[in-house]
């Protein structure tokens, strides 16, 4: 039997006013709390038992949320995408979505999936899938196209099968439907064509699915009002081949066949399915529960105010829009039996007893001889198996136990063994726990600083600042510039205050200390060496993007700069910092993500002499960029010209009134002034000839009226 209880309104505010209704209802990290994403600008966190909202967040006017917000169960944070490509991550303490972590992706997102036991997955509209951590590490990475042209994703579902994540999504092209199954433990993607059979003229309108150990049961509600079932293997025989699956009739005419909107379905358990829609053409919309095993209607409830055709379920609650308000209807489904399906189940049990179904893993049973030995032998085998398992705890627990008491050398040995073992889906969560355990011991024992172990953990590329915020605090305390450089290069969510604290250390640490440190010098030597070679040759004239530091553009500036022409030439050709400091600034700081609003206040705390040094280095990088036609620095992943100019502007905005009073900075400021003035002159000249270029464009468009060959004389005034 199944029953629908009395429903209640969860939101007192009308929802679903947008063209897409509600975007989604998703489980939060607490079982009684749910994220509701309206089809416009708002995400609301509700507590069902109290029937009240706990928080609400909105994007800015003009921005539109384009996929449902989800909870990252590993961190407790929330994730949403607006305007198809902009990803936001926030927590309960945040108030304004405009001020939380932001990442702009290179492709449009269709959906973010998040369930217990694994990291969130991002499904792009072109069919590619990325883990959240890998995506945040490089938001602008190239996203491949998986589905063919004109294919459109219609529905998607995320499962855990034997602790391994499995994603299925359905696409449609010219009324042909395809199912893609992505297995993440084996990194295989299988494609299936859904054959419609005798109902070829019908259009599939809604999908739902359930999964057992080896098969995905895909159910579809078609325009003829019937529900069909397709069995898709999780482990195909030939993943590379486009295979076919046939649909079979599961339930006949559960909703009116001429209804196109206001219908939905979702699987409740292995024998029950909930359907939303009018059962007859003239009837009102209702929600009903069907027994798929015996093909009987168990219960239904009328919804006189209509629905949006959207249905979600979590635990024992159905969520839907009733009119304009989000409604929750509790339900109960008993163990399926013929008597229960016919409504004749006799409750002969005592009130305090409860029937618990028993499930046997026959594969395990065969392995241990179940069915071929007597009960006492089976019990002895089970006891022996239990003892063996208890003697051998998981590798992660062994490592955590080692961290609490052993030396760093022993910890590093155990860590290498753990990292060499097979990775599980919760690998990055375990890595985060290991880091927290190491930092916890360091806090209790300040002399214990497991630097080598921490460096190995950072190089796994699965950590983030939010997962272990104490890591960079310890590195700052120890002035560990190598660890700070590695964190800045790999962590995508570092706060601006921490970035600025790293910048202070990079600028203030002595040259002798830097020479002893092991720092990644990637690409820095490419232009440092070229500078040293240039200093051996005399430069009669240096032009940088139309800008000559010694050009007679400003009389006052020239008088200052031309007093010591040798110093000026040296300033424009020599790097003001040693190579290792340059590596820290170039490869770590300039590539850091930041918000100008939050970074500026912290830049004001940097001493003026360090600001001047950083400005000199940035000006040097600009001059190196300007020496070639591509306006780029040599090496892999160099900072762009825009990044260099943005940092110059930020430093001047934050510290100009202080820097202008320092004699050492006077020559640099005068050079920057001349640079800006020269750029203004160039822009002015370009604006003057803009009209001429427009006329040339018009003439070019009229070439069709001329012969194949002609001589033209154009006079520009």
TrEMBL record:
Domain Nucleolar protein 11 N-terminal: 1-332
Pfam families: Nol11_C (PF20998), NOL11_N (PF08168)
GO CC annotations, alphabetized: nucleolus
Residue ranges constituting the Nucleolar protein 11 C-terminal domain according to the UniProt record: 397-717
Recorded superkingdom: Eukaryota
Coiled-coil regions listed in the entry: none
GO biological process: maturation of SSU-rRNA
UniProt-listed InterPro entries: NOL11, Nol11_C, NOL11_N, WD40_repeat_dom_sf
Main location: nucleus
Keyword annotations from UniProtKB, A to Z: Activator, Nucleus, rRNA processing, Transcription, Transcription regulation
Localization: Nucleus, Nucleolus
Protein name from the UniProt record: Nucleolar protein 11
Organism ancestry: Eukaryota, Metazoa, Chordata, Craniata, Vertebrata
